[in-house]
Amino acid sequence: MTVYIDPPTWPGHGRMWSHLVSDVSYEELHAFAASIGCPPKAFERDHYDVPEQRYEDAVAAGAVEIGSKELVRRLTAAGLRRPKGRPA
Predict the structure, then answer these.
(1) Is the CB of residue 78 less than 8 Å from the CB of residue 23?
(2) pLDDT tens-digit map of 15-73
(3) Closest Cα partner for 5 from 15, 20, 22, 17?
(4) pLDDT at 87 over 90
């Protein structure tokens, strides 16, 4: 199982956020997210939004830290990227 997380550099709702993705399957991603307490509503198209306060928890649970560009590259290469405006 390999799940990736980028640094919490995305602003929103008065916080900074990370993105949590899998390059294997959405099932793997959902299972990992549930194991660290991410609510289902945090899932957006192809990733989970993780607040910076939970970043270290995700890493401690096994999420691999990578940069945002590399995260998108791996997600796209796996065929799991779902950009806004494109059907699921």
Answers:
(1) yes
(2) 999 999 999 999 999 999 999 999 999 999 999 999 999 999 999 999 999 999 999 99
(3) 20
(4) no
Query: For 11, phi and psi rounded to 5 degrees?
Result: -80, 150
| Residue corresponding to tokens 């991603």 | 29
How is residue 9 written in tokens?
């550099």
DSSP string, 24-84: S-HHHHHHHHHHTT--GGGEETTEEEEEHHHHHHHHHTTPEE--HHHHHHHHHHTT----T
Least confident of 34-38, 61-65, 76-80, 83-87: 83-87
30-54 burial code (b ≥16 CB/10 A, e <16):
eebbeebebeeebbeebbbbbeeeb
